[in-house]
Structures are given as C-alpha cells and as structure tokens.
Amino acid sequence: MGLEVHAELSTKSKIFCGCANYFGGGPNTCVCPVCSGMPGVLPKLNKSAVEYAVRAGLALNCRIAKNFKFDRKNYFYPDLPKAYQISQLYAPVCTNGYIEIKTGKKINIREIHMEEDAGKLTHDSMRNITRMDFNRCGAPLIEIVSRPDFRNGGEVIDYLERLREILLYLNICDCKMHEGSLRVDVNLSVRRTGEEKMGVRTETKNLNSFRAIERAVKYETSRQIEILEDGGRVVQETRRWDDDKGASYAMRSKENAQDYRYFPEPDLPPVNIGDKWLEDIKKSIPESASLKRERYIRDFNISEYEAKILTGDKKIAGLFERISARSGEPLETAHLIIGEIMRLINAPGIEDLSLDERKLADLIKLVLSGKINRTAYKEAVEAVVTDDAEPDEYIARNGLLMMSDNNIIIDAVNIVLAENAGAAAKYRKGKDKAFGFLMGQVMKKLNGAGNPDIIKKALEDALTGG
C-alpha cells in the first residue's frame, strides 16, 4: 500500500486569491472570480501556503526544493469550475522524506506537492438532485505521497497518527477529518507470496476517518485476493468507500498522469526560496510531540505513559507546561492533568481547555504544602475547571482548609482515646489496625479538616506516652 494524504492548510486566505479560507460558511458565499474560474482572471500565490508546505517538508525529513513550479492538471468534473486544477507534477516543493512509525520502520515519502482544492458536491437522493458548493475551490492543500511501503492496516494507522500529530504541532492543518481538512486515498495491490512484481493497484478515494481507513484496507485486500484466487484479474480503477455498507464500489478506471494532460501553469512564474527565508522557517518550527515526550521523561521524571498522554494533544501539552512553570511541580502537574482535568474535560459541558493555569498552580501549592488534603484538592480543582472559582475563596467558603493547630488536634486526640479506650488498648498490645480506626475517629471529630501528618504524630505520642 501507498497513501496520498490531502491536508488542507490553515492559512487565512486561499492559495491563489484573497477569499477567506474557513469551513462552515453558507454555500457559495466565499468565492470570487479567481476561485470560481471566471475567464480572464489571474492567480496570485499565497506566500503563507508556501511557508506551511515547507514547514511540513522539514518536519517530515524531506529535501526542500529551492526552485519549484506549478503545473496545470486538466480534467472536467462539476466541482471544478475551471476544468483544471493548479497542482505540481514535475517540480514539487518537497521530496524524499520519511516518517518512522512505532515499530521503528521508516515509511518513505516520495513527495509533498501543493495544489488547490476543488469544490464540494452535495447529493440529495430524496429529490434526485446534486448541489454544488464552490466555497472550497482554491483552498490550499498539500498532498503527502508515500512510497508503497505499507504491508498491513496497522502500519497505515500508525503512520497516519504520527502524521496527524506532526501537522497539528506545526499548526498548519487542523486535521478535522469530519470537515474534510484531512483526507486519505489508499493505493493497494496484492501479490502472491514469493512474487517480486507488484500487483495491479486500485485507489480508494477520500477516506475521512481512521475507522473507515482500517475497514477499507481490510475490505479491498480481501476483495483482490478473492478475485485472484478465483482466477480473475484485478482492474486498475478508482473506488469509493461506503462506510454504512462496509464496502467500496468502482467509480471510474484509474487515470495516469498522461490522462490529465499536465503542462506548466502559464499564469504562475517559478518560485525561488531564498536561503534566509528557508532558515527563518526552520527557526519557526515548534518542538515536536516526540521531542516533548523525550524531554518530559528525561527532565521531569514523568513516565513514558504519562508523557504520551500529555503530548497527545497540543493544547494539553501547552496547559501542562504553563501550570508546571507557575507551580514548579511538573510531576504533580502531570498527575493533575491526567487524573482530574482529563476526567473533567470529558464531562458534559466542558468543551475546551480555556483554564486558568494560575488557579490550578495555586491549588498544587496548597495541597503539597499541607494546607488542604487530597479530597479538598479534588473538590477545588473541579470548582476551578467547571465554574472558574477562585481557589482561596472557595476553600475558605467551604471550610476545606486543613486544621494545623496543635492544641486543637491534641484535644481531639485525647477525647477520641477516652471514648475508645478499648481500641487504644488493642493498639498498645500490637494490633496495628486499631491505629487506623483511631485516626479515622480523630479526623471525624475534626470534620475532616485536620492535617493528617499532625494528627498521626499527636496520636502516636498519646498512645506511646511520647
């Protein structure tokens, strides 16, 4: 298998015109003469789109072309009003990269090329009509084309998870597959064990979820094997996946480059990337998720499992670093996020990570200094996350501050020992479990507000005469 991954770049405007580049507007409300293909218009290249493509190439270990150009890919389809697409065939912006997946295997990337997106067709089966929305025409894309290095569906998903993580950390694509900003084409062929020559491939187009990709790979593998085992011949074709039916169907015979009659795009000059600009782009690339994981494990003594969770989402990693910087306690911060915060942000009504790191850092300091216990800590964290409560005010209002007054605690210990002389006698005879019972009674007497460390010391002294 080889993959073609189409990633829509998160630039403010489209690739060849000034129309806004965003998802969700009303149909045909974000188009202009350029992206709608009116006669006599000229494209103008978006510099930010080039920068984003170069960022992707650098992060994916590619060679960056100092000079590249665009080509015209000709085909007629209702969602392509110009009847051609500006793309790259002969001189793409990035070539010869790779991604290393979990097993250590390198999946080679043949190229990354830039192109404009087509529009979107909406089929209304009830009324038997198709509507055309050209808002997406001209949206900037990069197409990341791998070598046919995949041998099973697990490798495909590992690669896509890693790629998605890289694109998100680069901040060049939101990777929302359900909105079409990340789409995958799977080129797949089978061959009998021991054969050297690749089999005839098919291309399953526009897969928009990891689940659909896994199912499509499994289905197409089985379909081709069954054809060959029955003595048939696999036809080179483009197929569309129907996730509801769990099956694919043929769309058209598979085209080759010559079918598109590529020729150099006459309305755009070749592009030159200067050394200084390339160096500036390199410096702007943020720390990757994999490097963050290594740093968290090395510098903060965080486990590999915790580091993976913290870096699984760029927003969570950012929150972790901000709280850690304020509290000075990265390990406790990791436990807070993985425990309480992850639980709360998955609860109904909590939709984002717009949390006040100062308040959460203050709570970490309070619990580690012994001013509140763990139960009060969890309660206060929830109040901060769900209601943006002020920690000190919430703790005071709800009586959560731990009591550390020695005299009050000693008085409570003496009362408990007087009321539970039998348990005290058992402890003195070696029954250690009685101590836990007595601790619980003291805590109860203090309404759960006593400092456990001070209570333990006062109780030990009272029982042993210390």
Task: Give an overview of the whole structure.
By secondary structure, this protein is of the alpha+beta class. The chain folds into 3 domains: 2-176 and 189-195 and 254-277, no CATH class; 287-397, no CATH class; 406-464, Arc Repressor Mutant, subunit A, CATH 1.10.10.410. Helix content is 41%, strand content 18%. It is built from 15 helices and 16 strands. The chain has helices at 47-59, 153-170, 210-229, 275-284, 289-300, 304-311, 314-327, 330-345, 357-368, 374-387, 391-397, 406-419, 421-428, 433-445, 452-464; strands at residues 2-8, 63-64, 67-68, 71-74, 84-87, 94-100, 106-116, 120-124, 129-133, 140-146, 182-188, 202-207, 237-242, 247-253, 263-264, 271-272. A 9-stranded mixed β-sheet has the order 2-6-7-10-1-11-12-13-14. Strands 5-4-15 form a 3-stranded antiparallel β-sheet, with no helix packed on it. Helix 6 crosses helix 8 (330-345) and helix 14 (433-445) packs across helix 15 (452-464). The longest helix is centred in the middle third of the chain and has 20 residues, at 210-229.
